[in-house]
Amino acid sequence: MNGRLVGVDLARTLALLGMFAAHLAEQEGAGPGGVSPLFQVVAGRSSALFAVLAGVSLVLAAPREAVLADPGAYRRRILVRSSLVGGLGLVLGTPSSGIAVILTYYGVLFCSALPVLSWRARPLALLALAWGVASPVASLLLRPLLPDPTLAVPSLTTLLTQPVQLLGELLVTGYYPVLTWATYLFAGMAVGRVLQARGDGARVTRPLVLAGGGLAVLALAASALLTRTEQVRTSLLASVGLGPGDWALLDHERRLGFYGVFPEGSAWWLGVWAPHSGSVVDLAHTTGSALLVLGCCLVLVRTLTALPWPLLAGAGRATLTLYSAHVILLATPLGDEGVFARHTSTGLLAHSLVALLVGAALVAGHRRGPLEALVGGVVSSIRPTSAPGAPSSPR
């Protein structure tokens, strides 16, 4: 197996475990703002890492030369993948699991790659940068024109009963709005093009780690400096109906995170870090942290060659299957009591261990996850007419 892909699988495994922690770990705790340290680490960052890796995988499955040779076939592949993943998300969102299922948003998000699928790394990186600055501003301007979000998980029910509302939430006002989340996809696509062209040597991974880490730190520092200003605090508090003495309460809520978008009442929110807020600083920080994690994973796989990385990162090859099983499990009584129960340390440990063991078993048996095999089989049936050497899958 290609070491570059094992590094991506390792990063995807960490993203999966991070999302488990975001769903299952206690939110309140002894960390800053009264929020548990574990939750503060994973909230917002894990799902962003997934989205960046989706962009990486998308272009690894579509070499630029092959796309240029037959763009229609590769775009049809993305549309089919989008439909299958989005449809699965609607099914998983129908029973009550207590999770804001991300897959339907992903299905729509994939479509944003269609116009730029053949782009080189540098234009994609510049697009991600511009989109990360412009899309939060666009969100701030558009949301007052749209109905308030219902906070309903996309499901077959919402598709049938509130299709227009659902579309607005998928694109602008929902948990993972495509308007702002396209930033992650474009950034991941840029990284994927670099990996295709230059491999995963130090000349690629070192800038990835340094740039990602630097961006993440600078974004947090900018937010911290901004929110120390009394004028800014007063504006932020007023935007959510709180008074001057309520900063500790707002800081607590901010650290827990929002529901996909930041409050509309103050433009200062654009420069404030909060998980799942979609602010400029949020997009910058989480994109940076995703690049940092991916770079570190590529370095680990390349340097610590004695470790059985394919087995350790096996869950990253079956994230669609394992995430779906995780959601289904939490929609059953097992999600509320017993070894898999949410908001317990044993529940988080159980979900994580099962995912790691299943992933290792699939790798050892040279198998893919059932859902990965299904989606991959359908997508691979759309064969390019002339794509020399193009793989049908990133794995």
List keywords for this structure.
395 residues, mainly alpha, 65% helix, disordered C terminus, transmembrane, transmembrane helix, HGSNAT_cat, membrane, Membrane protein
Q: How much helicity do the residues have?
A: 55-70%
- Contiguous runs where pLDDT drops below 50 for at least 5 residues: 387-395
Number of helices: 18
Count of discrete domains = 1
Helix/sheet category: mainly alpha
Distance between the termini: 8 Å
Topology as a string of helices (H) and strands (E): HHHHHHHHHHHHHHHHHH
Taking all Cα atoms into account, the compactness measure Rg is 20 Å
Shape: globular
Q: How can the largest sheet be summarized? A: none
Q: What is the number of E strands?
A: 0
Mean pLDDT: 94
- Work out the strand percent: under 5%
Can you walk me through this structure?
There is one protein chain. This protein has 395 residues and is mostly helical. The chain has one domain. The protein has 18 helices and no strands. The protein has helices at residues 3-24, 37-42, 45-60, 64-69, 71-93, 103-111, 121-142, 156-161, 163-173, 178-198, 202-226, 230-239, 247-256, 280-303, 309-312, 319-330, 345-364, 370-380. The longest helix is centred in the middle third of the chain and has 25 residues, at 202-226. The radius of gyration is 20 Å and the shape is globular.
